[in-house]
Structure formats: C-alpha cells, structure tokens
Amino acid sequence: xxxxxxxxxxxxxxxxxxxxxxxxxxxxxxxxxxxxxxxxxxxxxxxxxxxxxxxxxxxxxxxxxxxxxxxxxxxxxxxxxxxxxxxxxxxxxxxxxxxxxxxxxxxxxxxxxxxxxxxxxxxxxxxxxxxxxxxxxxxxxxxxxxxxxxxxxxxxxxxxxxxxxxxxxxxxxxxxxxxxxxxxxxxxxxxxxxxxxxxxxxxxxxxxx
Length: 209
Prior knowledge:
The structure is a single chain. The chain is α+β, with helices and mostly antiparallel strands. Helix content is 50%, strand content 11%. It has 2 domains: 3-37 and 94-199, no CATH class; 41-87. The chain has 6 helices and 4 strands; from the N terminus they run ααααββββαα. The chain has a 4-stranded antiparallel β-sheet. The longest helix has 36 residues, at 3-38.
C-alpha cells in the first residue's frame, strides 16, 4: 500500500462511520426479530407448551379445534393454544431479512455460495418486476439465495459490521490479490486499525452486541 492509497483510505474511514452507524441500526432491528422468534414460548405455561408439542406432532391440524372442544377448554384458552401451535411449534422458523442488515452465515443447507462465519450485508436486486434479497461480501460479490432459517445464521456483531466496512474501504483502493503473504499481512494490519477507528464513530445509544 503506497502513501497516496493510505491517505485516501484514511479520508474515507472518517466518513465510513456513517455506513457503520446505519448498518448497526438496521442490524439491531434484525436482532430484535431473532429475539422475538427465539422467545415465542416464554408467555405460555409449561403445560400448554407440552400439550401443543403433542398436538403438533400427533394430531392433524384440522382436528385441533374438535379436540380442544372435547377437552372442554374455554374459548380463550383454545385461542391461546391455536396461537402457540401456529408459531411456537416451529423449531426452525424463517426470519425476515431487509436490505442493509448484516448477517453471519453458520451453515449451508441450501447450497448457497457465501462464505461461512464472515460478515455479509443484505441487498435487494430487481429483476424486471421482482425484487429479491441477496447478500454481498466486502468485495461486492453477490451470491445466490441466503438461508434465513433461524438456525443457519446469526446477526453480525457491531465489531463484525465495522470489519466489513473497513474491508470495503481497503478493497476499493487496493488490488484484491490477497493470497500473497505480504498482502495478507498488510490487509490484517489495516483492518485492525480501521475497524477500531470506525467502531468509535457509533452513534450514542447504539451498543448492540
């Protein structure tokens, strides 16, 4: 990395905090949706959860109301049990993604083309009248469909979002031939410095882990 390249990158890092802040805010919303789906059973009694597990696995859904009536459950309890059966019994639900959120994929159940355990940013791409969500790497490489099952990914941490933004800055100004040991060492050193600089620019109150 020559002196001019480094100067340009440092200039951009001073404004990269804006992209970081936007990414953190967007990803906080994703964390909230994951938390909500993960805790969907928390407002139900242990008895109701166990009952619904049995109904979900052993009784066709068309017969649930009939069985509830036979057990003389009140209309209020029947409604609660129907709500639990409709949401809480899904052991691996899908999570809605939105553009600008940062994720880390943990597994590859649908043969996607993305690296695992690396931060990615969600983007939307239009094809005619259709809009489809994909993810991109810091190099701007877009893969295919992302798995959104709750077990296959997690929301990126603030540190990982800063790392993504720092790597974007680096790749914009330097040739991406990162296989050479000296280039990889240069990238590692730069990312450590740049990530720390970007992460300090977080807006007040955005302290999501």
